[in-house]
Amino acid sequence: MSGSPFRLSGPGAIGYVGWGILVLAACLSLVVPFLLSPYVLHLIILVLLYAYLSQCWNIVGGYAGQLSLGHALFFGTGAYTSTLLFLHYSVTPWAGMLIGACCAATLGLAIGFLCFRYGLKGPYFALVTIAFAEMARLVALNVTVLGGASGLQIPLHEGAGAAVFQLSNLSAYYVIYGMTILSVLIVNAMRHNSIGYFLLAIREDELGAEAVGVNPRKYKLVSLVASAFLTALGGTFYAQYYLFLEPNSSLGIGVSITFAVNAIIGGRGTILGPILGSLLLTLSGEFTRSLVTYGGAGVHMMIFGAILMFTCIFLPEGMVPTIAKRLNPKRTC
Amino acid sequence: MNGQATVTILEVWQLSKRFGGVEALSCVEFHVCDREIIGLIGPNGAGKTTLFNIMSGFDVPDEGLVVFNGESIIGLPPHEICNKGITRTFQMTRGFRGLTVLENIVVAALNGTKNLSEAKGRAREIIGAVGLRGFAEKRAGELSTGYQKRLELAKALATQPRLLLLDEVFTGLSQTAIDDTIRILESANQSGTAIVIIEHLMRPILALATRVVALDHGVKVAEGTPQSIALGAQHVGRYP
Q1: How many helices (H) and strands (E) does chain A have?
Q2: Å between A271 CA and nearest CA of chain B
Q3: Is the four-CA dihedral B209, B215, B216, B220 of positive or negative sign?
C-alpha cells in the first residue's frame, strides 16, 4: 500500500497529505508576503531559513543517521567566504554563494574522510564535528581579515547582484523560499533513489548494510559533502540578509545545535520534520523573547527550554512520526 | 543437486585465528563446489561463526587464505565481498528495524544493480518466495523472531549470491517454518547458489547438505556425508 494517503511517516516518505499541505503552503506563500507587515515577513524568513538549514542537516543527521553537531562550520564557511569575496573583490553573492559552498564541501570531505576512515560513530563523530567547528570559530575570532570578535559589517551595495538580499525583505523572502523548496526537492529525490535506501540502511544497522553490499563509508561521505555544500548556501543568505557577520552567531555551537534540534524535534529522517520543527522552535523562540521585554534577560530561554522538554517527552520520535501515527493508528509504521 | 559438482568456487587454506590465548581456528581447510550445500557443525565455541566472519570480510585471519573464484578475498571489506558474490546472514538478525520489510529487501536487491525499479521488482519476487508478502509494509522491528530470520534470509537471497553463508537460520523456527525454509533454500540452490549452513539442528542439515564439515575447538575434526557424520556425532554424544 505504497499509495496510502497518510504516509507522512514511514522512513522519510510524506505521502499525499504531506504533499498536499506542502503544495498548498507553497501556493499561499507566493502571494501572502505582499500583505504582511515587515516584522511578520522577517519571522517567516527566519522560519524558512532554519527550515532550509535543518533540512540540509537532515541529509546527514536524519537520513544517514550521523549526528553532526558541527554544521556551523559549513554555515560559517559559506557566510565568511562569500562575504570576504564581496567586501574585497566585489564578487556578487550569487557567485560567492557557490564558491563558499565548494569550500564547505571540501571541508566536509576532509572531515568525513577522517571520521569515517577511522570508523568514528555516534557521540565520537559528534565530538569531532564540534571540535572542527570550534576551531573555525577560534580562527575567526582571532584573525583580523575575518573581522575578529567585532565581526564584519557588510555595506549596502546596490550592484553586484546583492540588492536582492539586502534591499527588501520581499525579495529576500523569495530567495530563501526558493532555497527551501529546492532543499525539499533534493531530499525527496534522494529519498526515492538508491542512495536514500543506502543511507537509511546505514542509519539502521551499519554492519547489516555492509553485509548486503552497501559501502557505508562512501555513502556517509557523500551525504556529508552534499549537506555541507547546501548548508553553506544558507550561510551566504544569512550574511547578506543580516549584513553582519560575527564568529559566535555564525560558527558557534549554538548554531549547530539549532539545525540539529529543529530536525530532531520535527522528526529526523522525514521531509516535513525540519520544516515543522523550524516553524515551532523559531516562532516559539521569537515569541518567548517578546514576552519578557526588559529586566528578565534569559527568562525567555527558560520558557523555550520548557517547550523543548515538553516536545521531547510527548513527541519522542519527533512531531511528524507522532502526528502520522495519530492520523492513522492502524498503520503500524 | 544433479550429478557431481565439479567446479570449486571457494577454497579455504590453512586458516588460523587466535583471540588472545584462545585458538578460535587452527589450520582449517575445506572447499565449496559450485551449487553444493555444505553443513558446518560443531558445539558452541567451535569456531563456526569465526570462520563465517573471515569468509565474509568481517574479520581477518592470523594465517591462511580464502580464495573465491580464483582470487584471494582476505582483507577485502564486507561490501566488496558481497559484491563479488558471497553473502552471509547473522545469527543475531540484523534487519533495518525502522524500514519496512520490503524496503529492507530492496536495499539488499540493490547489490549489483543501481536501477531502483529493477531492485524493487526483484524484492517483490523474493518477498513472495519467502512468504513475507503479507508483511511487506510492516516495519522490520515489529516482526517476530521467526519472521526476522526469514527477512534475514530474504535479504541475503536478494543480493543474488553465488555462495550463501547461513548462520543458524533454522534455530528458533517452528517445524512448518523449518520445512518452508528448507524449500526456499532448495529452490535457491537449484537456481545456482552454493550454500554453507551453520546449524545445531540436524534435520535441515540431513535434508539439505551433501557434505558436512565438523569443527571442534577450532579444528576440523570430521568431514563426510551427513549420515556418516551424524552417526559419528552420536557416538561421541554431541548430538542426541
Answers
A1: 15, 2
A2: 16
A3: positive
Distance CA A177, CA B186 (A): 57
What is the pTM for the complete model shown? 0.89
Does residue A88 lie within any of the structural domains?
A: yes
* Exposure b/e, A171-200, CB count within 10 A at least 16 = b: ebbbbbbebbeebbeebbebbeebbbbbbb
Inter-chain contact A211–B82, Cβ cutoff 8 Å?
yes
Min distance B54 CA to chain A CA atoms (Å): 12
- Residue contact B116–A192, C-beta within 8 A: yes
* Burial class of residue A142 in the structure, from the number of CB atoms within 10 Å of its CB (0-12 exposed, 13-18 middle, 19+ buried): exposed
Q: Which of B96, B114, B142 sits opposite A204 (nearest CB)?
A: B96
Confidence tier at A158 by pLDDT (50, 70, 90): low
Strand order in the sheet with B219-224: B86-88, B163-167, B194-198, B37-41, B211-216, B219-224
A203 CB neighbours in chain B (<8 A) are 98
Average pLDDT across chain A, whole number: 86
| Contact list, A210 vs chain B (CB under 8 Å) | 58, 77-79, 82
pLDDT value at position A10?
47
Total structural domains within chain A? 1
CA-nearest residue of chain B to A10? Answer: B99
Share of chain B above pLDDT 90, in %: 75
Is A123 inside a domain boundary? yes
Question: Inter-chain contact B99–A193, Cβ cutoff 8 Å?
Answer: no
Q: Do A205 and B87 touch (CB under 8 A)?
A: no
* Band of pLDDT at residue A39, cut at 50, 70 and 90: confident
Nearest CA in chain B to A11: B99
Q: What is the DSSP string of A268-323?
A: TTSSSHHHHHHHHHHHHHHHHHHH--SS-TTHHHHHHHHHHHHHHHH-TT-HHHHH
Whether B3 has a pLDDT exceeding 60, the answer reads no
**A119 lies within 8 A of chain B by CB:** no
Best mutation target, A9, A195, A197, to test chain B (most B CBs within 10 A): A197
pLDDT tens per residue, range A190-228: 999 999 999 999 999 999 999 999 999 999 999 999 999
Does residue A243 sit within a domain? Answer: yes
Integer CA distances (angstroms), A80 to A130, A188, B138, in order: 18, 29, 47
In a domain, A244, yes or no: yes
A64 at B interface, C-beta within 8 A:
no
What nine digits make up the cell of B216?
Answer: 571442534
Q: Which domain holds residue A173?
A: 38-251
